[in-house]
Amino acid sequence: MSAKKRKRAAEIAAPIVQVYRPETLKPQLKAIGGSQSDQWNNSLANATLQTLWLKHANEETQNKQFEAALAGLIGIAPQDELEGMMAAQLLAAHFASMECYRRAMLGEQTFEGRRENLAQANKLSRTFTMLLQAMDRHRGKGQQKVVVEHVHVHAGGQAIVGNVGRPGGGDQSKLQDQAHAKQITHAPQPEMRGKNSERENLPVTGHEERPLQDARRHVARSPDGKPECV
After folding, report:
1. d(CA 13, CA 110)
2. Which of 56, 66, 92, 198 would be 51's cystine partner, CB 3.0–4.6 Å?
3. Left, alpha or beta for 143 (phi > 0: left; psi -120 to 50: alpha)?
4. What is the pLDDT of residues 12-46, one digit of tens each?
5. What is the distance between the alpha carbons of residues 25 and 36, in angstroms, rounded to a whole number?
6. Distance (Å, rounded) from C-alpha 196 to C-alpha 50?
C-alpha cells in the first residue's frame, strides 16, 4: 500500500471531532435537551421524535405531533444532559404505552392480542414511573428533611429526636415499653449531696468490748419458792 493510500485510510479510520468548551457555547435549544451544546439538544430531540407512531398520519398531523413532543421536553425542563435523557425516555415510554393501550382497544383485536398489548402497556407504565422517580431523586425532590428548631429538656429528662413509634402500626409491646420508659425518665430524682456538705458519722465495727443485756428471764415464784404456772 502506498503512502498516500495509508494516509487516506488513517483519515477515514480516525475522524476529527471538534470539542468546544461549555463556557464558550451559546445554546439556543437548551430548554429541549438541557445541554450547553445544541448538537446534543438537536440529536436528543430527533431521537425523541422518532419514537412517535406516525404510520397513518399525514404531514400536518406529523408536524403537530412533533411540536407536541418538543413542547413536552420543554415542559419537563431538563437542566443537564442526564435530565435530558430521562425526559426523552419519559416521552418515549408514554407514547409507546399509549399506542399499546390503543391497539388493545381495537374492535377487531383478538383476546390474545388484547392481553399482550395490555401487558406491554403495564410494563411501559411501570418504566415511566421508575424514570419519574429517578428524575425526582436527581432533582432532590424525593428526600425528606426534618428541621428541629427548639428543644426543651427539663431536669431529669431526655430528648429524643426521630421516629419513636408509628400510630396504628408496629409492635404494641414496644410502644408500651417506650411509654413506660418515658415515665421513668421524667420521674423525680433524689438530690445528690454536694462536695462540701456535712457528712454524718456512721458506726464502725471493731473489737471494743460492749455491755450485753441480761439474757436471763425473770420467772414469778410462789411464797414457797416454786415457780408459778401462767
Report:
1. 51
2. 92
3. beta
4. 666 666 666 766 778 899 999 999 999 999 999 99
5. 6
6. 88
Residues 43-78: pLDDT tens digits?
A: 999 999 999 988 888 999 999 999 999 999 999 999
Give whole-number Cα distances, 193 to 155, 196, 199, 204, in Å. 16, 8, 9, 22
Q: What is the pTM for the complete model shown?
A: 0.56
CA separation for the pair 34, 40 (Å, rounded): 9
- Cβ atoms of 161 and 151 within 8 Å: the answer is yes
Report which DSSP code applies to 230.
-
Residue-by-residue DSSP string for 21-81: -GGG---S-HHHH--S-HHHHHHHHHHHHTTS--TT--HHHHHHHHHHHHHHHHHH---SH
CA 156 to chain centroid: 35
Instruction: Report the share of the chain in percent with pLDDT over 90.
Output: 45
Burial class (CB in 10 A: 0-12, 13-18, 19+), 24: exposed
